[in-house]
Design brief:
Length: 87
């Protein structure tokens, strides 16, 4: 009987874990979609800085092993350059 209870407990925990993974993937996809839409909107709104915003999109996705260094966003100041660091 103890073995049956442990098996049920294990199955319940596994199901809970799988549901959490599904939710996590959903939120990850929603976040990525929102990020892309926001960067596109900012790119359209602040056209002169569009090459910088395109680079931010690449950095946010992790393309080319580059991570955003946390410097101010180029749409807020006109003299800002975007520095990135290699991971």
């Amino acid at each position: 009987e103890a073995s049956i209870n442990l098996s049920k407990e294990r199955d319940s925990l596994q199901l809970h874990h799988e549901k959490q993974l599904v939710r996590l993937r959903f939120f990850g996809q929603a976040l990525e979609s929102s990020r892309e839409r926001l960067i596109s909107l900012l790119d359209d709104w602040n056209y002169p800085f569009s090459p910088n915003l395109t680079r931010l999109t690449d950095v946010a996705r992790g393309d080319q092993g580059v991570a955003y260094s946390g410097l101010p966003c180029p749409i807020l100041t006109t003299n800002t350059t975007i520095d990135a660091v290699q991971e």
